[in-house]
Specification:
β5, α7 (132-138) and β6 (142-145) form a beta-alpha-beta unit. The chain is of the alpha/beta class. The two termini are 24 Å apart. The chain has helices at 2-5, 26-32, 51-54, 74-81, 102-105, 112-119, 132-138, 151-158, 162-170; strands at residues 12-17, 40-45, 64-67, 86-89, 124-127, 142-145. The chain has a 6-stranded parallel β-sheet, sandwiched between helices. It contains 9 helices and 6 strands.
Length: 171
């Protein structure tokens, strides 16, 4: 289990997978852990080596863990991530290039990460943009926040609902 692999002592784990680029809000997410409930940990996964060095200059609590595990298949990755209690998929349009503007603003159903989380029955926390927030709210399969600064409070409020969200995400 991920708790043993990363020596995570907190009973609840949220995972974020993918890019640590500015549009992904990972820096802000890591910093937000300063305000998370004590029983939550964040596992940041990237397939690229040295990812933790890209965000080492920000302050964060001891509840942040980093993974650069390589997965041979998508199903292997899904099995790994879905051990967590919550999958995080944050998107913030930066308009730096053709891929980080309207593509992120109107993400629609193109998020492979969100689809992977949901297909494994993992509730998703996301920002309020694109198509997924409406689906998550309609099917009670996740948590929608307007801003990263709301995550700590959202975790505290929704912790008791995660099992029902997991069932809804899987169906």
């Amino acid at each position: 289990p991920i708790w043993d692999t990363y020596r995570i002592s907190q009973p609840h784990v949220a995972v974020v997978a993918g890019s640590v680029e500015r549009w992904s809000l990972v820096r802000e997410l890591v910093q937000s852990t300063l305000h998370w409930p004590n029983d939550w940990a964040l596992l940041v996964h990237s397939r690229y080596r040295g990812m933790d060095h890209q965000i080492k200059d920000i302050s964060y609590e001891r509840n942040v863990y980093f993974s650069e595990t390589h997965f041979a298949t998508a199903s292997e990755a899904a099995s790994f991530f879905c051990q967590a209690d919550l999958g995080i998929a944050l998107y913030h349009p930066t308009y730096d290039d053709e891929y980080t503007g309207l593509n992120l603003e109107h993400l629609g159903l193109s998020s492979g990460k969100t689809a992977m989380y949901l297909s494994g029955g993992l509730p998703v926390l996301t920002t309020d943009s694109g198509y997924y927030p409406r689906l998550l709210q309609q099917y009670n399969a996740g948590i929608v926040v307007k801003d990263v600064s709301e995550i700590g409070r959202a975790l505290a409020i929704h912790a008791c609902s995660l099992n029902s969200m997991r069932r809804n995400a899987a169906s």
